[in-house]
Amino acid sequence: NKVEREYALLKERVFDANPTVFPTSKYSSELFFWAFIMLFSRAARLSSKSSGEELALVPYADLMNHNPYSNTYIDAQRSGMPLISRTE
Description:
The longest helix is centred in the first third of the chain and has 14 residues, at 2-15. The protein is α+β, with helices and mostly antiparallel strands. The strands form two sheets. It has a two-stranded antiparallel sheet with strand order 1-2. It is elongated and about 45 Å long. The chain has two helices and four strands, in the order H-H-E-E-E-E.
């Protein structure tokens, strides 16, 4: 799958090339998959005028719409209040 290919490429190009910086015990495929799952299960896609859409980890924001029927949206802006939650 794509995540396994991504890890294999990262391992080949970065981890294996620098084993003292990236020891296998801390940069294993299991830990990579765990981190990937944590990121994509809790990440929010934020619109950005400068770069389009960005993926961000926003602490506690994933709790706002835990209900599958929730109408809560997360919006970010560059100035003023950095995070806005709204229900439509």
